[in-house]
Amino acid sequence: MIQDITRFSFPTIVVFGPGAIQQLPECLSEAGIKKPLLVTDPGLKQTEAYSKVTKALKGANIEFGVFAGVHPNPLDEDVENSAKIYQSEGCDGVIGLGGGSALDTAKVVAVRAKHEQPLSDFEAQAGGYKLITNQLPPIIAIPTTAGTGSEVGRGAVITVPSLGRKVLIFSPMLMPTRTIVDPELTVSLPPFLTAATGMDAFTHNLESLTAPIFHPICDAIAVGGIELVWKYLERAVTDGTDIEARGNMMIAAMMGAIAFQKDLGATHSLAHPLSSEFNLHHGLANAVCLPAVMRFNRDAALEQYTRVASIMGIDVRDMSQTEAADKAAEETAALNKRIGLPSQLRDCKVPEDALPGLSKKAFEDSCHLTNPRTCTQEDLLRLYQESW
Ligand SMILES: [Fe+2]
C-alpha cells in the first residue's frame, strides 16, 4: 500500500508515497509557481529531507529563495522576515517544509505577501478571516513530521510576543494548493519528536471525535485516524525507517486535521499556554494532559471512549461503558510511557506555582468551548494539577 506514489484529494490535492518529493517541480508548475520561497527551520536545513527538496528544485533548474529561521513555536517576526525575502527575491509562491511551525509560517507568509495589516488583525476569533480578501500566492506544503496535519488545514498558529499569546489565523485560502506527503522525509525524525508529534495527531483525532458537534463524516475520519495511530505510532518510534508505519502516521495526521474542523477540546486549551509560556513541545503538552482530560470527560463521552477502548484492543464486551472509558484513559497514559514520553508536567520543567496563571490562559483559549464537558477555569487548574 505504501510503495507507490499516488494522488488523492480531500479536498487538498495530496501527492503521497515514498519518493513523492520527486514530483515537486511538477507540483510547482501545476500551481503556477516560477520562483518559490522555501520556508523551513534551522534544524531541518541540516537534514537529508532539506537536501532532497533542494536537489529536486535544482534538478529542474528552479530558482528559489530560502528562509530557514522558523522558531519551534513560530513568531510573527518569522513571518515578517520571510516576507522580506519573498519580496526582495521576487518570489511568486511559498513552500513550507517541516513540521507545523514551518508550514504555518509559510501559509501566513502567503497572507503577508498580499496584505499589509498587522498579523494580529487577522486573528480568527475576532473575525480576521474577513480581512484576507486578496488572492494569495500558491502554497506547497511538505510535512516532515506526522502530527499537526497543517498540510491539509486552513489555519495557522503564530505567536505574537507583544500580545503574549498565540494567534490563530484562518481562511479557506490558507489551504495548500498541493501537499507532498513523502514518508521518506520523516525517517530521520528522532524518536522523541516522532512520539510527541504522533500524540498530537492522536489528540486531534480523539478530541474531534468527542467534540459535541454533529459531523458524522469527521467522526468516521477521526475513528480511522485513531486506529492508525494505535497501530503505527509505536512502530514508527521504535524503527524510524519503517516506511509503512511512517506513511500511515502521516495519513493519521492528515485525518486528524481534517476531523478537527469539528473543533478540538480541553487538552488543546491546556497545551497552548504550556507552549507559549514554557516552550513545551505542542505534541508533548497534549500527550501529558490528555489522560487527565479523558478521565474528566469520561461521563460526557462514554460511547466514544468505549469505541476507542475497543480500537485499543480492549475486550469491552463484559465491561460497563464507564469501565471501558477508564481503560481508554489508562491505555493512553501507558502508550505515552511506551513511546518514551514523560507522564507528568513536573518532568517537563513546568513549575507548580505556574499552574494558576496557566489555567487563566487556558480558559481564555477557545478550544475547550467544544470539550464534551463544560470547563471552568477551576476545572482547567485541577486538570493541570492532576497532570503535574
Ligand atoms: Fe494540536
- Give the helix proportion (percent range): 40-55%
Report the major sheet: 7 strands, mixed
What are the segments in which pLDDT stays under 50 over at least 5 consecutive residues?
A: none
What is Rg? 20 Å
How many individual β-strands? 9
N-to-C series of helices and strands = EEHEHEHEHEEEEHHHHHHHHH
Q: Averaging pLDDT over every residue, what do you get?
A: 96
Q: What ligands does this structure carry? A: fe (ii) ion
Structural class: alpha/beta
Distance between the termini: 41 Å
Shape: globular
Beta-strand residue fraction:
5-15%
Q: How many H/I helices?
A: 13
Lateral strand order in the biggest sheet:
1-2-9-6-5-3-4
Note down, in words, how this protein is organized:
The protein contains 13 helices and nine strands. It is α/β, with parallel strands linked by helices and 388 residues long. The strands form two sheets. It has a seven-stranded mixed β-sheet with strand order 1-2-9-6-5-3-4, sandwiched between helices. The protein has a two-stranded antiparallel ribbon with strand order 7-8. The model has no long low-confidence stretch (mean pLDDT 96). Residues 148, 200, 204, 268, 282, 286 line the site of fe (ii) ion. Fe (ii) ion binds next to α5 and α9.
